[in-house]
Write a structure and sequence with these properties.
alpha+beta; Arc Repressor Mutant, subunit A; 2 domains; seven-stranded mixed β-sheet; two-stranded antiparallel sheet; 9 strands; 54% helix; rod-shaped
Length: 252
């Protein structure tokens, strides 16, 4: 019996024993349960139970002749069409399932990252998001080469992919000349805030459609918190837009 076919059938919802019974019936053609049991290595009672389950699932047929039941597997072509029908049926109802899921499971999710773990995972999310990223930059003195390399990578990749540019709010104590050069280099826009209203001591990234991240430093070690929350996203997004609007207007 082909082991790959057994695995394929299991991937489509059959148990190992059901898959074995189905393939045995394919090899034998229409026959009685005792013959299928003998060739599959299963007990007769178990085989009969499995055959009935396979009939319910649409994998087998039962035909009676002279009060004797003969079982046969449906052809692979018919099986494929049946599986395709189930797939299309589920696909059609998927929006309804997602609506129910979001209604009852749209809870806040929090992830913590440190060093390589967050550098890889968090910045990859930044790289792939198609939403206009917004960042409130604190720019602490603890930034190291690894962190700078990771942040440069995602900015470069976003520009290469032609994704929507990011907007950056930065305090006045940064190298403003370099910020302008980086704006051109990465296809972004930056507003420098002379009197920054918050001593946040963290970089805040607003991205996703519903995610925010906080990058901060504890004992000179970079750490990050990523929060998936529509309410948190909307709150920080509104704060960002207000600071941007006020300071962008003052620069005109």
């Amino acid at each position: 019996m082909d082991a790959n076919l057994l695995i394929t059938l299991q991937n489509y919802g059959l148990s190992e024993k059901e898959a074995r019974i189905y393939l045995t019936a394919v090899e034998l053609g229409p026959t009685v349960a005792s013959t299928i049991a003998r060739n599959s290595g299963e007990k007769r009672v178990t085989t009969y139970t499995l055959l009935k389950e396979l009939i319910k699932k649409g994998y087998m047929n039962e035909i009676k002749r002279n009060d004797i039941s003969y079982f046969s597997s449906i052809s692979p072509e018919i099986l494929f069409k049946e599986l395709e029908k189930k797939y299309l049926s589920f696909k059609e109802t998927l929006p309804d399932f997602l609506s129910v899921f979001e209604k009852f499971w749209n809870t806040t999710k929090i992830q913590f990252f440190e060093w390589d773990e967050w550098l890889n995972k968090m910045f990859m999310e930044f790289t792939n998001t198609t939403i206009n990223m917004k960042t409130i930059l604190w720019t602490p003195k603890y930034y190291n080469k690894t962190l700078l390399k990771a942040s440069e990578y995602y900015r470069r990749e976003r520009k290469r992919k032609g994704l929507i540019s990011m907007r950056l709010i930065s305090p006045h104590n940064v190298d403003q000349k370099k910020e302008k050069e980086d704006d051109k280099k990465y296809g972004r826009k930056t507003v420098i805030v002379e009197d920054f209203p918050f001593d946040i001591k963290a970089d805040i990234n607003i991205f996703g459609p519903n995610k925010v991240s906080f990058l901060f430093f504890e004992n000179n070690i970079p750490q990050a918190v990523v929060i998936t929350s529509e309410h948190m996203y909307n709150c920080l997004n509104a704060i960002f837009d207000y600071i941007w609007k006020v300071n962008a207007k003052s620069k005109k």
